[in-house]
Description:
This protein is mainly alpha-helical. It contains nine helices and two strands, in the order H-H-H-E-E-H-H-H-H-H-H. The chain has a single domain, classed as Arp2/3 complex 21 kDa subunit ARPC3. Helix content is about 75%, strand content about 0%. The longest helix is centred in the C-terminal third of the chain and has 38 residues. It is a multi-pass membrane protein. Pathway: Cofactor biosynthesis; adenosylcobalamin biosynthesis.
Amino acid sequence: xxxxxxxxxxxxxxxxxxxxxxxxxxxxxxxxxxxxxxxxxxxxxxxxxxxxxxxxxxxxxxxxxxxxxxxxxxxxxxxxxxxxxxxxxxxxxxxxxxxxxxxxxxxxxxxxxxxxxxxxxxxxxxxxxxxxxxxxxxxxxxxxxxxxxxxxxxxxxxxxxxxxxxxxxxxxxxxxxxxxxxxxxxxxxxxxxxxxxxxxxxxxxxxxxxxxxxxxxxxxxxxxxxxxxxxxxxxxxxxxxxxxxxxxxxxxxxx
Length: 255
């Protein structure tokens, strides 16, 4: 029991050190563009529309989180880790399309661990704190950012993991789930921007191809990097959080 507590304490300390170090390196770099879709960039009609679409998923996510924490209170530390991982990873930003930026999302890990509905809440809280504390994204565009990063991305990650796992290659499943969740987030963001700002020539499709093409330059290597990093974190969890992963039936109990 004492050894278990010490391992958890060590794990928490390492997470905090990594998060602070990463933030000091990345968080204080002067942003060229706002994170996600920035405040006030979307027309009012589209901003309201994405809020309405995102809210039901958030409510269902709250119910999912309540069930998880009531059934297994021991998983609260792992929930905090999933949220912290998303916050830290998505704090990395590279200038991209005007009014937005490219960055990892970090939602794949939480979606595999707790499911997409739970991740819709964790991702929404991350986006809310980033908009309030870091001036990344915004409140009017929060619904759009939540839909792309905290809803669609986690659902894609969850189902990709489920589809690949029958092959028995768990690390490949983790990599693909994380990388494709990252890519789909920016495909959806491109759709959102194209709907709000159709091109004069080519309309929605012309605008979508322009946005998606610019995003692809930075997002494809970022998605690959995020997939590899998530696999490393998974290996770490397999060593230090094995009991929690067994509880979630994500790895087999040791004999």
